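Why do we care about 3D structure at all? Because function follows from shape, and shape follows, mostly, from sequence. That is the central idea of this module. The next example makes it concrete: a single protein chain, its amino acid sequence, and then its structure expressed as tokens.
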Amino acid sequence: MLQWISDRVEKVVRVVQKWSKSRHHLDIDHVDDPVSKFLHQKFTLFVISSNVKAAMYDPDTQWLHIAYNNGDQWRYGQVSQVEVERFALAGSKGDWIWENVRIKGKGNKHLHRRPAEPYHWIAPAALNIRPKVHSHA
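And the structure:
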């Protein structure tokens, strides 16, 4: 069983290394791979995460736009191409966000490690998120 897991991990590492090396030779205007489009063409990347719903990166301005599962949307500035590649390849998008752009801790809901601002770039309906309902009872 351990050998099978080891073989699978090695295969994933080889695929990521191959992708990482080959991305520099891509004609980015004609790439059909979602990760490459996310990195180079302002493509919205939907992810499976308990925290993050979708992301979009603007390589010209270095803003990383994040839509969270709770409906909040933020954009984070000064995010390099290398950092965004790491985000795209991260096993946990939420962990990457906490480790690289947000500050953990009670009472730190809107504290960030880099420039950040609320910014709605995608309609909540497109994210299949129900709008927040505030009760006044």
